[in-house]
Design brief:
Order of helices and strands: HEHEHEHEHEHEHEHEH
Strand content: 15-25%
CATH class: Alpha Beta
Structural class: alpha/beta
Number of strands: 8
CATH topology: TIM Barrel
CATH superfamily: Aldolase class I
Oligomer: single chain
Length: 188
């Protein structure tokens, strides 16, 4: 269990998702306390992490989207030991289990496209027990409620969050936070 993640999201449930380098400085200047890094590569990742941490923000690196790294245990170990993000995000159950065994905060990302992906996701969550789950799209209150109820793992809504109503509905459904790349929502 990662109390720091939960405390930060409780204080401010909006997470700045940075999907381009142009948005990094905007995210750092925003009132958000957490950055989900969805872009980067083997050459710039350390600098990005240092810059975010120097701004007194937490950063979670989406391993699957980092260029130049393999998506395996060695890349996870290298990034954790040498760059020290606050945690990782991944769609891969094997990386979640590895991260948990290394005492790294792990957020597992799920794309819920249909009832089969929902059932498989719930099964995977029971098996991997990530620190939190990121669900895409995040505008599905009934699904957020069901996943949280069935797994008891904190849920973060993400994807297609376009306005204040989406944020409120997701939070009311049981999401502990919202991850979005929409800058105007960072200031809610």
């Amino acid at each position: 269990m990662n109390h720091r993640l939960y405390e930060k999201i409780e204080a401010n449930p909006v997470i700045a998702a940075v999907n381009s380098m142009e948005k990094l400085d905007l995210a750092i200047q925003s009132p958000c306390e957490i950055v989900f890094l969805l872009t980067g590569n083997i050459f710039n990742l350390r600098g990005i992490i240092d810059k975010v941490k120097n701004a007194d923000m937490d950063i979670y690196v989406h391993l699957d989207l980092m260029e130049g790294f393999s998506k395996d245990m060695m890349a996870l170990k290298y990034i954790h030991e040498n760059m020290k993000p606050d945690g990782i995000i991944t769609t891969k159950s094997s990386l979640v289990k590895t991260a948990k065994s290394m005492n790294i905060c792990a957020i597992q990302r799920f794309f819920i496209l249909d009832s089969l992906s929902l059932e498989r996701g719930i099964h995977a969550i029971h098996h991997t027990r990530p620190d939190a789950i990121e669900i895409l799209p995040g505008v599905m209150p009934k699904i957020i409620k069901r996943i949280h109820h069935e797994t008891k793992v904190p849920v973060i809504g993400s994807g297609l969050i376009i306005d204040k109503e989406d944020v409120i509905e997701s939070l009311k459904a049981g999401a502990m936070g919202i991850s979005t790349s929409k800058e105007e929502i960072w200031y809610m």
